[in-house]
Write a sequence for this structure.
């Protein structure tokens, strides 16, 4: 059975695996104090055109999210995030377990707007006795979002402006950042990120690493303190060079963006193919998480041959499924899936 | 420069690397819900002769420690541990960050005794107003300890008896469990552990895995709840199969214990060689973390050719250094080091 | 200026003050281990007809809420509560600071329904990978609610049934419990509470004590552990007898319910008076927090002579104000306020 | 039976009680936003000669300690404190429950020395990989200490100097500050405190208030944020004016220091009387917690007529008991106790 349910089903592209194998019997100092990690940090700084940025490697996304958020907030502050956000929904209360409320905002399409952020802040700061309320201390968004939608550069920059106005940090979760940047309607590159937010991740797990999220921090104070937070939260990998060599490989010969473009191209193919076949979508976009709507009957039939994600139940009984592409997706599998799904209409 | 400062300098034995490479383009479901992880869990259960045990894979040691401890304790309880323990000293307050005090006990040699545990408990439970004190809720020990000493089966069993008496769980941190079991004076096998404690780890990171700690849980309730704790603490690896295939390889053809015996044999060689050369030790034992005492002068000379760990400063100005062997240590490097250190005496 | 903005503006009825003065120079053991506290606990158990209940005195409401909730939940569990609830809105993230998410539910009138609780639970428990979500572990409601509405006995009992079905505890915040029980349409007495929930508070601060909330616990295990939680959260009053003597006085000669009825009667008067004068209400009910709707102009005029709470802004620009009665409210002040507000229509 | 076991057995001096009674039917705004609290804050600022200090009233000591400490520390920092300190021993892990380790130091007499603080800091900051250790972020001491010993002005100032050198705040827990200042060998007044520390409490509970600790904060940023921390930790008293009027009374006509001197004078009497009678002491000093050493037999006899605290078991089987004086202690009771204890020698 061919699987499309998520974008982290396979391991890593060959150069990444080879880099690990090559470094395997080197003797590397622990905890990221090795030359591979240093080199990888430099490569990322270059790709982001942010020579002063702090770059830290963590193993996973929830870990990265909780560590970044807990290190940015004061005890009595919370993080503004969309109600569809990963941190609000899919991390077993990991943020709250660090003591912080998520100030969730209902969105039209998984994307927070600058106005919504401003509304939350205005409501808080006009309170006479604000001390009874959780102070908004930062904003969390994902690019692409958890429903596959995508922010434009201007949209993120506008949120960042509101953040600066209210003394908050903006954190962009880039677990699928490459897939966003490679999407046909993207108007950004990696080098834009340092301009329009305070912290972001350059996701590895879903985009060509066996595992790993690179946290890029613009704020110098936060950056200096971040390693302490990583260690305390259990996120410091003993053999940190494993993350170093993977990001070295991903940021050599443009492997990161090449892998992303592969997934992005196939995502467009999936979108157009299903559209043409008459499917509608929960949210319409061209990124690597496609959410076509099917009947229960259709899902059953599809599930006999393919593994897709049962994403959401619609009020009318139909189901939004998730079909993901990734760096590892084979075009022939996409073609076969599309052909198959066409027959169901 | 050859490095002896710790036992996690290299990656993994070839069969482990090959297992990852082989599974690389399979499509495995995430979060450990894959067949490799299932198989690895079975292999560990077999090796431990604990068919009912829960087995969970985490990436790192601090993560494993904080997740196990936080999941075992009630809010007002603390964990009894030696003052030399990793959780008390080397994890940036990771346990306290989950809200729990470590009830630290000064030990003669890094090993807690059953009597010491009993003393702590008796002192607590005889209090008229015990509610002002942190209730001892579990015991944490490491095998081997952070200073290389080792518990006998009877010593751990005696601690376990006290634990049962006072309604506490016993957690054995096995980051170096294999190296303990393979030591010449060991009187235990993996199958003993389930008999004499409630939770233990079968360490991978230091013993042949790229990364990974297997948490083995005897208590059924704790086991059922453990995945929730893992996820909440950011410890659930998206591509959990990476841990599965590594432990599959380690527990196939006895690779785990073979690797351990390699390190253990070389540890004995280091111990005997240094002893013969006239070195004394901070703690005398034959496990894979040897702690010979040198002068500052000697350390400088050694450091020109070898990387060793500056482990502890002695009151007389001398220094205990740490020399570790691992599955990856080369006998010729040990021979050269011993020859070299002999010349310094 | 006469104040109506809340129900905790004054100190305490004379018998409560006198009880403190009388015990002032006694030498009472600390921390609630005194005979007044014991007696007060007995009086409350009698009033609740719950001879086996645990009764604990805390100083304040937020403290009581966070201590009860943190002591009931496992790390990975959250508490279901209305979006209008005090814990969700007015406690600076105190619950999240203990590590727990509030699973908030939008309600029509500040009251959770059994069906809503069931919906949250069903959604959670049908998840294939529930471990990514916060497990509902308890339910929090307030009687009366934060908007003055009131549950019937059957409504609470129905929620309790769902709780039992899903292994959750039901916590009823009774900061204004007396005012609910004394309301004209109440169908409950104190003795009903132990039948229809697991933990509840008998509020003092707003109902005749200088300060104090009595936590009544039906669950034996929770009750036994509760003092440890109180102390750890900083909620154990050194001179616990101060709480004891106040509750002794409140539960002697029916002072608690007499005080409540005074407030309840005046609340009805406020409600009827304003209704008659042509005011509409944000939520229509007859309890001690009346929420009439006024124009900005009217609020300005009222505020020249009375202090009322600016409770909520309506979309049409009008404002819901809060007018509270309490045990200390004077009938002549209510009469004057009503007469005054009549002139504004 | 006359009680001497602690210094919080009685309520409050008459002027304090009268102040509450007088304000009882006033309508005071909640949460300390009332004129009594404002006035009390001013009186304390005057007494401390610290016109810019922030003054906040909390109900109890553990609450004050945990709120101050959690608001001063970064997540990865801990607080240096003596092993005999209240926060380390007697608060059920309340500090750790906020996520912070107490870096405990063994002391000769319950008093931390500047050198000990320096040693802890030097050990930390010389670490190559300091990120594995808990960073010392503040220092906690008590004046008088938990064993009745007392710091000189110079001793506290010296600790403060080390704190400033290492970027740490110094917190002086003044639960018994008045009793220290009134002791015969004191070389300080309230006005010294702002010069030699960053935060301190002016204890009420043990020194003439029914309850209450005034937290005085020199740091402007910390002061501004403190109310948020108080509310989040459940420490904001609804009827904050209760604290205001008590401190108003205590700081009118020098009642605070008059009460303290009464206790201090009787403490000297106890000390000299027992000394003369041939008793030795666990720690020898003249403050209000006297710790004479008695045999088990003697303790039994004493306990038939007096309530004293079984403070510590000595290795030789003897027992240090605690005899406290307070503002409420009667001289005739002290005389009788001394006469009685003389007969036991």
């Amino acid at each position: 059975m061919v699987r499309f349910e998520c974008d982290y089903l396979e391991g890593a592209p060959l150069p990444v695996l080879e880099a690990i194998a090559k470094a395997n019997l080197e003797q590397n100092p622990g905890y990221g104090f090795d030359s591979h990690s240093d080199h990888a940090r430099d490569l990322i700084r270059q790709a982001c055109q942010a020579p002063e940025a702090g770059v830290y490697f963590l193993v996973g996304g929830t870990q990265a999210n909780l560590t970044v958020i807990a290190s940015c907030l004061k005890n009595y502050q919370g993080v503004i995030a969309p109600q569809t956000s990963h941190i609000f929904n899919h991390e077993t209360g990991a943020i709250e377990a660090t003591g912080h409320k998520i100030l969730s905002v209902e969105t039209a399409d998984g994307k927070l707007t600058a106005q919504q952020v401003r509304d939350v802040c205005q409501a808080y700061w006009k309170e006479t006795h604000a001390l009874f309320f959780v102070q908004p201390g930062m904003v969390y968004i994902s690019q692409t979002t958890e429903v596959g939608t995508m922010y434009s550069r201007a949209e993120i920059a506008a949120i960042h402006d509101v953040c600066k106005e209210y003394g908050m940090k903006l954190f962009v979760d880039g677990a699928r950042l490459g897939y966003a940047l490679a999407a046909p309607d993207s108007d950004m590159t990696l080098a834009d990120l340092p301009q329009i937010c305070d912290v972001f991740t350059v996701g590895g797990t879903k985009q060509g690493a066996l595992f790993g999220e690179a946290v890029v921090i613009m704020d110098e104070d936060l950056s200096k303190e971040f390693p302490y937070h990583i260690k305390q939260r259990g996120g410091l990998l003993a053999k940190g060079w494993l993350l170093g060599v993977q990001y070295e490989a991903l940021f050599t010969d443009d492997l990161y963006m090449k892998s992303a473009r592969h997934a992005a191209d196939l995502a467009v193919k999936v979108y157009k193919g299903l559209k043409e076949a008459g499917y509608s979508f929960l949210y319409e976009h061209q990124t690597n998480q496609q959410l076509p709507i099917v009947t229960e009957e259709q899902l059953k039939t599809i599930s006999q041959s393919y593994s897709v994600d049962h994403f959401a139940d619609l009020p009318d009984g139909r189901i939004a499924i998730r079909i993901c592409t990734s760096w590892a997706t084979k075009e022939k599998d996409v073609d076969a899936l599309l052909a198959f799904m066409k027959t169901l209409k």
